[in-house]
Structures are given as C-alpha cells and as structure tokens.
Amino acid sequence: MVHCYPRGAPGEAGGHLSIHLVNHTNARNAKVLFEAIVLCRADAEATAAGVVVAPPCKNYHASSVFEYPPEGSHRFPWPRVVSATDLQQHCAVGGHATVVCGLAVLRHNPIPAPPSTYAADAAGLLEARRKFGDPDAAFAVGGRTFDVVRKVLAARSAVLTAELDGAEFGASTFCAVLLYVYCDRLPRGNECGCPVTIELVRDILAASDWYKLDRLKLLCARRLWDGLSVETVSKTLWYADTYRCPELKSLCIDFLTVGDNFKNAFSTEDFGWLIQNSPSVLDDLRRRFEAKNA
C-alpha cells in the first residue's frame, strides 16, 4: 500500500510531499523495485483530458530497490520527494496532484549468504602491526605479483597459506580471492584486471572451494543464480556439482525442470559438454523430474 503525505508524515520535518510504501503482508526477503512519479501540472491536465502534451515540464520522482528484511520495518519512506510549495505551484490541479506509482517484485535469490565473519577473523590479527603491517610475502600468479601479509591470509582461510602454491588459478581469480580476504566482497568493474563475467565468477567459486572460503562460495552462487539462463545453466551446474555447492546445484536442476528450459538447454553445446564431464547430473535431473511429476 502507498501512503502519501502532502506536507510530510507525522514525525518528519514537514514541508515536503512524503511517500511511504507499506507492506501489510507477511512477505520476507522480497526484493522490490518501487518508483513514484509526481506529474507536473501540464502532464496531469493532459492525462485527465486524454491528450498528448507538447511543451516539456518537470516531473518529480522517487525510486529505490530494496529488500524486505526477515526482521524489521514494514514501511519504507521517501520523505522529501518534492517541496509542498513546488507541489502546489507546479503539480496541483484543482487542489489535487497526480502521483503515478509502479512496483515490481524482482527475481528472488533463495541462496542465503551467511553473515560476514570479517570482524571475528580480524581478531586474529592482533599480533600484526596497525593496519596489518608491511607485506611479508609475494605470490606470482599469471604474470602478476601480489604482495600480501601472511597473518591476514592465515586469519581468513585455514588453508590459504598452506596450499597456495598448489592452486592453479588465473591472476584475476587470485586477485578476487585476495579482494575477498582483505575487503570481504566480490570484485566490481575492472578492479581485478577484467570485467566481472559469469566465467570469472565460476572460477572464483572454484577457488573458494579450494581455499575453503565458504561464504565467498555462496556469494558467487548468488551471483551465478542471478545470471542463470538456458545458455549458462549447463556450465554453472557443472561448477556447482564439481566444487561442492549443493544450494546452487539444486537450483540449477530446478531451473531445468521449468517450462521449456530443459529442451532449450539440451540443444546447446554446453549441455553435451556437461553430460560428458558430469554424467551423474543426468540421474539427479531424472529424479527431480520424477518427483515433480509424481
């Protein structure tokens, strides 16, 4: 439900149109896109008359993407959409203003990302210098050199220091692992030397399995689920099966049982590659189809 307060809601500073989106359901973890547009007077009059407006005019809008949390507020406010003065002078027609609202529930991501352990992990760094001290190790990966602090690696991953030399990952993948170790997040833009593609996220998932960074693995799984399609599902399913991510594997199999997804994915070259490299997936898929049709 949308609540509009022309001069501000109770408890707000006032003097502005305030718009609140209120959830009266029991929905949880719903990702929502909401936009409200306050039409200027010319647009509002044209809308009422059913004509097209030629001269340009300024509309006012508020928009946001947010998630209803498991616990917490059911009300999301936009307290300063337009001043009451501008609302009266530019938008009001016969004492009324027109507010056009749109809401879309975005694709739900059912893979839970556990809470960050960064603060707890950092407690193991008390012996290091302030701000981790100077780098005391360097790793050469894919022609690039990464300076690191051994105690940081040891605090964040029990196997990272011991098994680092045994892993064979590209420079961008290794950069992404270090970025997570130090900054607790996935890469953005080109900060690891290349765009964050589906292929890179798959490689990061594989690296997170090698280094036993379980939270990083689930962050990758969430990103891969968001980009899942009939073109990407086969390779993503193989990575989920090979690198022990049952949450993502189950969702990929579910995806293939919906509508024409299996038929369309079956015709791709990657699906043939999947069957050759992970034939047990066919048994999992068959059982899921049987359970769905039972």
From TrEMBL:
Domain BTB positions: 135-223
GO annotation, biological process: protein ubiquitination
UniProt-listed InterPro entries: BACK_BPM_SPOP, BPM1-6, BTB/POZ_dom, SKP1/BTB/POZ_sf
Residues of the BPM/SPOP BACK domain: 232-285
Pathway membership, UniProt: Protein modification; protein ubiquitination
A Pfam family recorded for this sequence: BTB
SUPFAM superfamilies named in the record: POZ domain
Organism domain of life: Eukaryota
Family named by the database record: Belongs to the Tdpoz family.
Name of the protein in its database record: Uncharacterized protein
Species in which this protein is naturally found: Setaria viridis
